């Protein structure tokens, strides 16, 4: 093991091992206490290494966003995968057919009959594909909105022989924009109530539903819960990021950072680092409890944030910080939004007490097809 | 050759071969007419394939942003590379030393004495490293600002035996925010005037300067020029993007697009595609001639733009477009900002007349160290 600062070429992604293991344990225990299954969403880390640690800690399975991710995870031995997204395309269902033969449990999200018809066609004579209906609860993204459409789709699925309706899922992503933690929790619980009600509507039609899946890191960290939920499905809690740390007012859970070098100090307040939009992503949440006010937070600093990101340069404007730092120094930046940031790297460095424990491949990086 | 829509898994990046070759030729001819060298910046495409085409078309060399890129390009046989960025760190200079032995011409950007001291130390006994001083002309990024600092650094470099001052360079990136094409050109020419003047100041000290390098796609497309410039250094012109097309009011030069599938239509106006922030980057220029008003433009559409990007979903809100398109259809999206978008892909599909000509690896993807 070597002291890491000295030999890591920047920009690079570092993962603090202790904090990450604590985060995994913390969320599993929280789910266990509530009596719901935990299905971590691996779109945050995109690494089989961490998915396996989450499974070993007690996760019931994993959630993915894309078939490409699910294929990599299945190859690594994970046997219970829910792709929480609408999959469309005959060639994609052909791939799902192969995957469905290979692992114990494969499920996908649906919100339209076009998908059901494609599944029905491709899965003919196969082990049926299990699906969960996506229900919209305020995020303004995908998912069924009206009761009428919901019941129509549930009955439509139920009438097919190669598709099995297993449950319902929703994502309370709009709670990221809540103006306080209390309102975040309220909005999340209202979203959960609506999801549970939607499940009841379907059950009232005599269609059994096993799973009611919800979750997002800020909501669950703020204690949101509603009777009838069977599964928490969330991703960012493993590493946190600037937005998520602000949502819970706690930076101590941030385990991922981008190591960068100071390459220029053109004025007495401007510090330029070698991590730009290809190393940190220029996302900046503008409202609510996750509002990041910039493009990253200098770790262990007194609120030093990146003001700007060019493709290859990160810009800090801070006179005091500039006085304390020299060209050639390395700093760690907590990204604004971790999920697309991890996806920029081929590997991460696992760090423990300042030493490199190992290099971990981001083996689902770019696997968005 | 196969018709491409049918078999490409989405999201994927497509490059139109004819338009790209035309763009390469157009910029080379424009530079030739002005009598200045063209040094394409490969940070846009990050592919040795296109760098070689640019060299074959008459480019004097290439510009890179990172050593990682330069190493890949040198390995592919490119012998004249300028890394237009401040490089810091002994280990990085050790890598540059290897590269300097290998290729005919290697140059880097400098704006501080810390770099010069590191070069002087590492390059002792080697072929000296050639450098260009970066001069700030309004972008508020890196580069020397005052005449005093400029002359101090020029003399400092000139006093060393392992570093050779070859020129000066600037980047008029602030012109992206100009409110009109005329003002863009004016601002660019003012930036060029200042760069040429800075070169003269150094020459007046008896220090010869061979190169005066400037350039950004909107400025040069708008005809900006100033006597004394020796080199155009720009990247985006090879593919253009939404911001750059708006800057010149011409979409016909956009040769890169992201192929995406419609996966959901939750309302009568909302269309959800399978390309999110991991396939299109959620950058949105907010002001000036490059203001993108959204996160991508649906190719050949009547101003249909992506309103939102989640990690894995792109959102269009357009009633008319929604009526015309079905779940399962594939669309092409011109990205808001091409440079970080290409960097998300391992390969691109080269397309000619609707057929796949070949798959090209993005061999510098992620090579930001």
TrEMBL record, chains A, B:
One Pfam assignment: Ala_racemase_N
An example molecular function term from Gene Ontology annotations: D-threonine aldolase activity
Gene3D superfamilies in the record: Alanine racemase, D-serine dehydratase-like domain
One GO BP: D-serine catabolic process
InterPro entries: Ala_racemase_N, D-amino_acid_metab_enzyme, D-ser_dehydrat-like_dom, D-ser_dehydrat-like_sf, PLP-binding_barrel
Enzyme class per UniProt: lyase
KW Lyase (keyword) present: yes
Keyword Cell membrane: no
Residue span, D-serine dehydratase-like domain: 255-352
Keyword list, A-Z: Lyase
Top-rank lineage group of the source organism: Bacteria
EC numbers on record: 4.1.2.42
Family (UniProt): Belongs to the DSD1 family.
PANTHER family (UniProt xref): D-SERINE DEHYDRATASE, ZGC:162816-RELATED
This protein's name: D-threonine aldolase
Record organism: Veillonella criceti
Lineage: Bacteria, Bacillati, Bacillota, Negativicutes, Veillonellales
């Amino acid at each position: 093991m070597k002291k890491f600062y000295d030999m890591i070429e920047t920009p690079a992604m570092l993962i603090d091992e202790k904090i990450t293991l604590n985060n995994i344990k913390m969320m599993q225990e929280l789910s266990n206490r509530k009596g719901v299954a935990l299905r971590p969403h691996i779109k945050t880390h995109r690494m089989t290494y961490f998915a396996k640690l989450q499974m070993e800690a007690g996760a019931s399975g994993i959630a993915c966003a894309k078939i490409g991710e699910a294929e990599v995870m299945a190859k690594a031995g994970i046997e219970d995968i829910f792709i929480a997204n609408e999959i469309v395309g005959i060639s994609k269902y052909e791939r799902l057919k192969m995957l469905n033969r290979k692992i114990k449990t494969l499920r996908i999200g649906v919100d339209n009959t076009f998908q059901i018809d494609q599944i029905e066609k491709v899965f003919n004579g196969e082990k049926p594909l299990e699906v969960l209906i996506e229900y919209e609860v305020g995020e303004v993204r995908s998912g069924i909105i009206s009761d009428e459409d919901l019941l129509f789709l549930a009955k439509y699925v139920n009438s097919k022989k190669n598709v099995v309706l297993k449950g319902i899922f929703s994502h309370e992503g709009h709670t990221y924009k809540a103006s306080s933690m209390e309102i975040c929790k309220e909005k999340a619980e209202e979203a959960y109530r609506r999801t549970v009600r939607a499940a009841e509507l379907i059950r009232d039609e005599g269609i059994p539903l096993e799973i009611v899946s919800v979750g997002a890191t800020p909501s669950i960290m703020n204690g949101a819960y509603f009777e009838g939920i069977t599964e928490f499905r969330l991703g960012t809690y493993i590493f946190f990021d600037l937005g998520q740390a602000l949502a819970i007012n706690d930076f101590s859970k941030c385990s991922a950072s981008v190591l960068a070098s100071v390459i220029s100090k053109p004025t007495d307040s401007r510090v330029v680092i070698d991590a730009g939009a290809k190393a940190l992503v220029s996302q900046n949440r503008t409202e609510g409890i996750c509002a990041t006010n910039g493009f990253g937070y200098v770790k262990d600093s007194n609120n030093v944030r990146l003001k700007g990101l060019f493709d290859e340069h990160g810009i800090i404007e801070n006179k005091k910080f500039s006085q304390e730092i020299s060209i050639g120094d390395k700093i760690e930046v907590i990204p604004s939004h971790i999920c697309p940031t991890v996806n920029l790297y081929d590997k991460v460095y696992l760090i423990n007490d300042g030493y490199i424990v190992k290099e971990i491949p981001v083996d689902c990086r770019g696997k968005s097809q």
